[in-house]
Amino acid sequence: MSQTQFFTSMMLLLGLVGLTSNRKHLVSALLCLEAMMLALFMALTQISQTTNNTTTHTQPLILLTISACEAGVGLALLVASSRTHTLSHLKALNLLKC
User: Fold this and answer.
1) Which pLDDT tens digit goes with each residue over 32-49?
2) Which domains are seen in the chain, by residue range?
3) Cα distance between residue 62 and residue 64, in whole Å
4) pTM surpassing 0.90?
């Protein structure tokens, strides 16, 4: 296992552990999701560099676009929830209430 593969897998694992353990604020959950998406981006970039297939070169860009859209939606939800509930705690947000 190379050093880049080790760091990528550790980033993904730490993002997953952070997402499962730090469930207090919405901002920390969004940051853990972004760390996981960055680890996936690094893994896809490494795979596309090692293979000489031209179809794998666009996959990291597609993932980066999807993660940017996910970050935008997450921040929009954060702003909307802070305006309505004045809190960013995940326990205060109940999806079943309107």
Assistant:
1) 888 899 899 988 888 888
2) 24-98 (1.10.287.3510)
3) 5
4) no
